[in-house]
Amino acid sequence: MKIRVGVIFGGESVEHEVSIISAIQAMNKMDQEKYEIVPIYITKNGEWYTGEMLRDIDAYQDMSLIKRYAKNVVLYFKKGRFVLQSKGLFKRVVKDLDIAFPIVHGTNVEDGILQGYLQSIGIPYVGSSVYASVVGQDKIYMKQVFTSENLPIAKYVWFYDIDYKEDQERVLDKIHTLKFPVIVKPSTLGSSVGIHTAQNDQELEEAIDDAIRYDQRIVVEEMIQNLVEVNISVLGNYEVQSTSEIEEVVAGKDFLTYEDKYIGNGKAKGKFSGMKTSKGMLSASRKIPAEIDEKLKEDVRSIAVQAFRALGSSGVCRIDFLIDNKKKEVYINEINSIPGSLSFYLWEPTGKNYTELLDDMINIAIKDYKKRINKVHSFETNILEGFTGTKGMKGLKGIKHKQD
User: Fold this and answer.
1) Smallest Cα–Cα separation from 358: which of 343, 368, 369?
2) pTM for the whole thing?
3) Alpha helix locations (H) across 230-323?
4) What does the pLDDT look like over 326-353, one tens digit per residue?
5) Is residue 375 in a domain?
6) Are residues 237 and 206 in the same domain?
7) What is the pLDDT of residues 84-93, one digit of tens each?
8) Is the dihedral of CA 206, 208, 210, 213 positive or negative?
């Protein structure tokens, strides 16, 4: 019997279209002998839809077609089953699911919010837990964890948008403890959205003005000189990890932009510009393997595994590094809990094709789920039964733990 996999994508995120690309790539590569693939698309206003048409990227050119022909559903736990149930007057179960596979990017979906919902209803799901997802999406939390683990990071400062609006001079003074050039980033976005470099105060202020359009917290960090940017993928969980080949990113600017990553040379116009022509992260220019020396490669692999374990990550993550190629120093930049295209292109040089990678991710998720349900999450005794105030608390002694 096939395992029914609900592939969840889209959502209220500036990386909405990127998620669609990644998910359709993955669904086309899943082993259909093993898995029944159930596409679950979340619109930008939070509506959930399912239907075979959602596996075709052309469907997203006209949202009215999705609303007309796909099923508007909710996912919940019903009598021992995880089901997609239709909405409206005549509710019915559209599909049963065995496991969820989120392939989502950015705020409101990749950042632990979706994972929290999946965990609250109890369905097994692929990828990092709520906690690792939260930290993996927030560059400030991430840097604080990396610092606590003594992992090398670039010098940085951070601030709230309200701090900048109320006392711009004080925030700029704080930033001036860094050396130009700097890079300005919204704390919780990905895919290089809202990110800018600044060589002077004028460019800095312009970059901040744009960044605060997207986020409440802003990170400003020193740019690494003699820069070589490399990425590596880690597969596993807190127990076992393996690393992919290392890629060297080639950007025409100071960093790889959203357009570099996903639009490429696409000529399509309009809302979904680039979706037909883009190959997701494959559209970016890169060298695989990276042209760095073996000592630097070993440093990247070692730091990547340390970071993966420090966050308690699971499934596949991509970890981005900055290298000062003159000083031969490696700095960890950030971790991507659900990377674009799931970083399959980094595993192919190791002999693992995309279908095998997806299979590994699902198997890891099943193992994680089995470990999770064997932990104590609630107590058998109901301490509120017969509760009449402080006297009712006397029965708390000797409560027996229950494994659920």
Assistant:
1) 343
2) 0.86
3) 258, 294-311
4) 999 999 999 999 999 999 999 999 999 9
5) no
6) no
7) 999 988 889 9
8) negative
DSSP symbol at 122: T
Order of strands across the sheet that contains 93-97: 93-97, 81-86, 71-78, 48-50, 35-42, 3-10, 99-102
Q: Do 180 and 236 share a structural domain?
A: no
Same domain for 145 and 163, yes or no, is no
Structural domains counted in the chain: 4
In contact, 6 and 21? CB cutoff 8 Å:
no
Query: What is the H or E stretch that residue 366 is in?
Result: helix 354-373
Tokens at 313, concatenated: 């990550």
**Looking at the domain assignment, is residue 266 inside a domain?**
no
| Mean pLDDT, range 388-396, rounded to an integer | 55
Query: What distance separates the 2 farthest-apart alpha carbons in the chain?
Result: 73
Identity of the residue numbered 169: E
The answer to the question of residue 296 being in a domain is yes
- Give the ranges where 212-276 is alpha helix by DSSP (H): 258
Tokens found for residue 361: 């991710």
Does residue 73 lie in a domain region?
Answer: yes
Q: Looking at beta carbons, which pairs linking 37-40 to residues 24 or more positions away fall under 8 Å?
A: 37/5, 37/7, 38/4, 38/5, 38/6, 38/7, 38/84, 38/95, 38/97, 39/7, 39/9, 40/6, 40/7, 40/8, 40/9, 40/73, 40/75, 40/84, 40/100
